[in-house]
Amino acid sequence: MQIVRGSPEESYKLLPQYMAMLEKKNLGARTFLEIDNINHFKYFFMAIGSSFRGFSSSIRPVIAVDGTFFKGKYKGTMFIAICKDGNNQIYPLAFGVGDSENDASWLWFFTKLRESIGEVENLVFISDRHPSIKKSVSTVFPNATYGVCTYHLKQNLRTHFKDVDVGGIFEAALKVYRLTHFTYYMNEIYKVSEAVGKYLEEAGIDKWACSHFDGRRYSIMNTNIAECMNGILKSDRLLPIHKLMDGIIDKLREWFYGDLDGHVNMLEKTCTCREFQLEQLPCVLAYSETIYPVGPQEGWDVSGDVCAREVHPPQEKRSSGRPKNNRIPSRGEEKIFGLWLEFLEQLKDYAKSLYKDFRIEIAEG
Hints:
Layout: H1 2-5, H2 8-25, E1 30-35, E2 41-47, H3 49-58, E3 62-69, E4 77-84, E5 90-98, H4 103-117, E6 124-127, H5 131-140, E7 145-148, H6 150-160, H7 167-175, H8 179-192, H9 194-202, H10 205-208, H11 224-232, H12 241-256, E8 264-265, E9 270-271, H13 275-279, H14 304-308, H15 334-364
Parallel strand pairs: 3-6, 6-7
Antiparallel strand pairs: 1-2, 2-5, 3-4, 4-5, 8-9
């Protein structure tokens, strides 16, 4: 596998050349690399111009952000900024790499994101309640609105208040728009548990309740789109860093490729592709541009200065032993995660029994 993929050390060394080729082949691509004073890797940022232009023209300005751990030889965390398109499908915007989810790394990532997308009107960020994300958003995007993932907040309620069940009331409270309706549901929560009511108020009602949210959230209440992207890239996170970026580019190329030879009639509101008539789905304007791969290293054409740039791996290696393959559940998810695994195992056994009975019936029939 190392012969095919190269070593992690070699991959970090190739990053400057990879970045140069990515920008050369994709108009408006943005890549940034930061190293320490002895040339060890610190941070990396990558985004494709096609994503930025689609975001500014066709995507609702709500960005979910999340971080997930690397699974290779060296420690690291991948940062994701992702949106939803008109069909409520995930629309990747930008990716980054840092040492961990801390103030410095998140601040660096958001700074590069701001340099890439500029000032965006009515911009909203959604994340779990990680303090570094909230702090960085307020620093780098002072005019943006910040909201918390309501799924994580609900899971935290289950963790802190195991004997109290207000999940249904909480769901109702966060979705209503009228203040009178919100007040009614909050009073119901207080009737069940005063401690839960105070906890939700301390979490910031304006960060999770639609009725109090100071921005346009478009009913995007959680960071599931970011979690989905993490799942899609699960196996890629085992790869050396430039191969991980190649995996991301390949996925973007697949999503941005489309048959765009249809003819739209704006008066009749029809398209010759017939997709809009049959499904009432918006056209794929956000995906109208092609994304180009970097290609094999043998074909790279970069300057001598870029080739001479030294980048060493991060100084901190992963501890010995087999790396974890499954995501680390967020706080409050542990119990639910275990119950899901148990349920899936039971479902698998049941499916096997059905299949066995089905074969017996065929044989007897």
